[in-house]
Amino acid sequence: MGSVIREWAGFQQFPAATQGKLVELFGKLKEEGVSTLTILVMGKGGVGKSSTVNSLIGERVVNVNSFSSEVSRPVMVSRTRAGFTLNIIDTPGLVEGGYVSYQALELIKRFLLNKSIDVLLYVDRLDAYRVDDLDKQIISAISDSFGKEIWLKSLLVLTHAQLCPPDDINYDVFSSRRSESMLKTISAGSRMRKRDFEESSIPVGLVENSGRCNKNDTDEKILPNGKAWIPTLVTEIIAVATNGHKSIVVDKKLIDGSESNDRGKVLIPLILGVQWIIVKWIQIAIKADIAKGDKGL
Q1: What is residue 123's three-state secondary structure?
Q2: 3-state helix, strand, coil in the chain (%, to 5)
Q3: Over the stretch 81-129, which tens digit does the pLDDT of each residue have?
Q4: What is the rounded CA–CA span in Å between residue 39 and residue 76?
Q5: What is the C-alpha to C-alpha distance for residues 57 and 53, in angstroms, rounded to an integer?
Q6: What is the 3-state secondary structure (H, E, C) of 76-108?
Q7: Predicted TM-score (pTM) of this structure
Q8: How far is it, in rounded angstroms, from Cα 90 to Cα 71?
């Protein structure tokens, strides 16, 4: 399922200061021989995945409204500028009725067949205060579907970042605590070895997609810590893309490989059946031996 590559018109919508920084960042990538960047956006529903895609492209490319926070299937948006192509893939939420949606994961995997993922943006909200077991299950399901190596190419993105932290906690302290609790969950759910996880620490990007975001003197959207978030996020994305780890290639083997677990499940009744036959056979043999013994007496 291809995507039409269009000229990146939305680039002109960014403030001049942001445009300058992005030209510099993408220019460095091109110097390194990288002319295409493919970003996969995943997370629960309603956390701001589609809005983040729109903010990064500078156009309303994915429909977002208050009542349906979801794209129902994966969508790839491709934009090109000065010989550089940016692909961003928006995806359905990974939770359905309080459980991990394996159907959504299957849809995403099939959509990604023969594509390479340079960066995974795992999106959640900064203003969600607790992490629960469902978060861990989502991370595990992503690891099972794409291999745990996908976390070596990931960036944790926390939206709704224009907030006043509770109880007068300093903004940076609050956002780092929230990030740490999510990163611990990613570490536990991904089943990566602790050492690997620590050596390739996952960076965190903060995002505010709403129109109420404050701006600086050069008209860039800034967070309460004073950082212009779009160029800061793109800097983090490019750091992940060029971190030395391989991009994730979604080939037939990867898609079928994750189903080998299901094949194992199919074999379980067969194994149990064989065990039952062996047990029965042993019981019959024991009874026969006892009967023989009785006759001999």
Answers
A1: strand
A2: 50, 20, 30
A3: 988 999 999 999 999 989 999 999 999 999 999 999 999 999 999 998 7
A4: 9
A5: 6
A6: EEEEEECCEEEEEEECCCCEECCEECHHHHHHH
A7: 0.83
A8: 8
